[in-house]
Amino acid sequence: MIVGVHPLAGFDKLLHYRVPDTMRDGVRVGSLVRVPIMHTLHLGIVGEIGAPKDFPVDRLKTVTQLVHPFPALTADLLGLARWMAGYYACGLDSIIETMIPAAVRRGAGLKQEKSLAVAQPLTAEELTALEKRAPQQARLYRLLAQQFRPQKKSLVLSRLGITAAVVAALVKRGAVREETARIERIAYADDHSTGELVAAQPHVLNSEQATAVSALAATIAQGKFNVTLLHGVTGSGKTEVYLRAIDAVLRAGGGVVFLVPEVALTPQTVARLRSRLEAIAPGHRCVVWHSHLSEGERLDGWLALATGEARVVVGARSAIFAPVQNLGLIVVDEEHEPAYKQDETPRYHGRDVAVMRAKLAGAVALLGSATPSLESYANAQAGKYSLLELKQRVDARQLPHIDIVDLRIEAAKQRALPSLSGKLVRAMQDRFEKREQTILFINRRGYSSSMQCTKCGHVEECRHCSIAMTYHRTDETLRCHLCGDQRAAPVRCPQCAAPEIRWKGLGTQRVEEAVKRVLPRAHVERMDTDTMSKKNRFREVLAQFRAGKIDVLVGTQMIGKGLDFPNVTLVGLVDADISMHVPDFRANERTFQLLVQVAGRAGRGDRAGEVIVQTFTPQAEAIQFSRHADYAGFAAAEMKIRRDFHYPPTRHLIHHLFRGPNPEKLKFFAEQWAKLVEKTLGARVDLRGPSPSPIEKIKDEYRWQLWYFTNAVTKVVPELAKLRADFAWPDDITQVIDVDPMSLS
Ligand code: ADP
Ligand code: ZN
Fold first, then answer.
1. Residue of the nearest CA to atom 1 in ligand 1?
2. pLDDT tens, 319-358?
3. Counting atoms of ligand 1 from 1, which one is nearest the CA of 566?
4. Which residues pair with 504 in a beta bridge?
């Protein structure tokens, strides 16, 4: 038996090896093996069985080891890796390494650990007697008797604060058994601390949901590739639709990948999924997947999926590579979220990869959003995707009323620029008195955006990056949000020494301070990446908020996504302009999405919600269409602009970034390269640039960029990759190709 192997050795080539008879039964396409290259052993993935015709097989080396008895990549994942290598211009080996966790590549198996379980149940009398005589033993017995599965011994001891002697006594008595077993370290497995409301029982579907569910059931029953866009307004009950689709796939024996944009949101989704799955198939497990897992957790989850023991994975972007067997459905919740795009190599988009994986696996991709990306919406309108719509909130709840506050008028009234308008302040006070809750969004962490001298106009910039530094009030520092550099905030202007240096623009800290001033008795919490750096802090604050212990929550859009708090009746967007006036063709789309999503957090309980949006540009389209949550109107207006300027989704964009310490040299090589591309690719690409990047310098490195507009990514990218490999780049210039970039800096 001969196999072709993709080695994980820093180059892309299929090498052939002989398989020894002892491994014959185990080796399949997708198997992880160790093979000799020159004189060292490397890992590799079996890419094909057999060899090309007339291949000189007699001098072949032999596969040294089969790392796992089951394939590390399913056939669809291997196909996906090949497609990604071509589409995103990166090495196949780096993608395979992204797909297979490090511990799996090392060949690690499940950890063996000591565990405890009830061996012989005690009678009620025996337990009462034990309670009197040895209360610690009784507590241990009770704990174990409540569990379905054996519990990890070390964990039980530390939780009850007891010694091994207590265990030994119960074991001796025969009531408890101690064994060494595979213990799974599945994340959140025994986590009931989040205080989330869990909808264990399925809801009775409303008529729109029922229509969507039956359409999906029919699609799933066909067992073919399909992409469905579920466009449902905020609070329309999309999750229930996802759950019914998952239910249908599981009953048919298929597997499911469920993607959510933010790790922080996973507990809520997982809790809901878990309880429902357990109702469908008792003992069913749902594997959690995201970048903060411990290595052990990741390994266990991966093995459970690869062996077919678990069939559902829920997680962030990288969960799209989980080895789910017999894949039937991929759900991409909040499909418009930029968080699905990875901003380091491989620079893939989780949603697009999900669609491709579904295609390769013959599965259904279900993309859901209240504000679909224009890319997905255009595909639905062109008939490439099926479209399902939920136009009403569940229980006929009203979409919240959106009030626009014109900050130009407000600023004239109050002389200084206020962070909170009179209207917003009165509304917050009203909610506080009624014991209802408020969320305030401000899309910038820190105290203010920058420090500017009102006398000479000087703005403090980072010494290593060409952007303004952000003022952080809590420790009186200026910080660079790009490189993290920080220094004490000056009291006088560093340029003209005038004491008139002031903040400019708003940040979360300044808004928090303003709220505390107008509502001194309220409990105010701030939630942004600065306060949430501790691992479980995010979940703690959310649990407190849900329990009604926090009156006003101030945060960046990290709190704007997918959260469902029935007692929130007021949402304020403090500065809608932050996301709008940036040099990015998606700025309008982002602002519209932000407004609709943020507004969607209000009025999810029985009471109607109110939304107050503060802006200096109330006439902007993104703001006007969002007032009536008019997605179709917005999409039509925005698509016209995209067509006029040939922006996505009309064509694809490819970003090419050049970085280096010497700006002249950078310019020279970027221009030489652009000439070469123009000559070689001709009309297949449309070039813009090269030119300095919007942020010209980061961490002392200069940046130039070049844009390619094209209709044919799959043709153009491989050509660019080949040209790039043959081009004589100097050592001190790094360059990065980003296909379908989500950020234009
Ligand atoms: P979306 O994701 O569309 O914004 P969710 O899925 O979060 O909305 O649902 C909003 C709320 O409505 C949730 O609390 C959910 O439990 C509830 N819900 C969903 N479907 C129904 C239904 N058919 N009847 C009653 N409540 C429902
Ligand atoms: Zn910096």
1. 235
2. 999 999 999 999 999 999 988 999 888 999 999 999 999 9
3. 14
4. 450
Alpha-carbon distance of 539 to 267, in angstroms, equals 8
Q: Are strands 286-289 and 501-504 parallel, antiparallel or unpaired?
A: unpaired
For residue 579, the CA-to-ligand 2 centroid distance in Å is: 21
Exposed, middle or buried by CB within 10 Å (0-12, 13-18, 19+), for 629?
buried
Rg (CA), the chain: 29
Which residues are CB-neighbours of 119 under 8 A, at least 6 positions away? 174, 175, 176, 177
d(CA 526, CA 555): 6
Return the exposure string of 418-440: e unless at least 16 CB atoms fall within 10 Å of the residue's CB, then b: bbbbeebbebbeebbeeebbbbb
| Ligand 1 atom closest to the CA of 205, numbered from 1 | 23
> How big is the chain, counted in residues?
745
8 Å CB contact between 16 and 55: yes
Closest CA to 102 of 350, 307, 298, 325: 298
Query: In which residue are the tokens 């979360």 written?
Result: 508
Per-residue pLDDT reduced to its tens digit, 28-57: 999 999 999 988 999 999 999 988 777 777
Q: Tell me if 497 sits within 8 A of 456, measured CB to CB.
A: no
pTM of the model: 0.82
Q: Identify the DSSP state of 725.
A: H
Task: For residue 701, give the ligand nearest its CA.
Answer: 2
3-class secondary structure, 615? strand
Taking residue 361's Cβ as centre, other Cβ atoms within 10 Å add up to 25
